[in-house]
């Protein structure tokens, strides 16, 4: 939240970064806690990698943090109520622990990576975007945001 305040004080209203869409901790922070959204999926963004990404494509989501968005302001506890309602008809689940899955069963981890890629890319192509993350159910919530 310090970074958000600093950006706003310096005239920056949108911040973008990439992250691994299969990792629940990243999704929980970036989407669930901070209120970033995503509608761009990069297949194998970095190409083959070693370390924690060895054996699976280095797919990434482009997170977009719109710092003055009412939902972001709500998460930052700056406002008490948000009148904007965005329907969330699509849920895309991710593994509870992708790293463990990758360590234990690389074939299944690869299948999960490709399933997530397919489901999110298809939804994005049909006008949906990630608008939240369900930490308990470890799934992305997608909807159409007609405010733009």
Characteristics:
3-stranded antiparallel β-sheet; 148 residues; 34% helix; alpha+beta; globular; 5 helices
Q: What's the layout of helices and strands?
A:
Layout: H1 2-9, E1 14-19, H2 24-33, E2 37-42, E3 60-66, H3 70-75, E4 90-93, H4 98-104, H5 106-125, E5 129-134, E6 139-143
Antiparallel strand pairs: 1-3, 2-3, 4-6, 5-6
What is the strand arrangement across the widest sheet? Answer: 1-3-2
Report the structural category. Answer: alpha+beta
Radius of gyration: 16 Å
* Distance, first to last CA: 24 Å
The count of DSSP E runs of length 2 or more, i.e. the number of strands, is 6
The share of residues in helices is 25-40%
Number of helices: 5
What fraction of the residues are assigned to beta strands by DSSP? 15-25%
What is the 3D shape?
globular
Low-confidence stretches: none
For the biggest sheet, the summary is: 3 strands, antiparallel
Whole-number average pLDDT?
91
Succession of helices and strands = HEHEEHEHHEE
In short:
The chain has 5 helices and 6 strands. The protein is an alpha+beta fold. It is globular, with a radius of gyration of 16 Å.
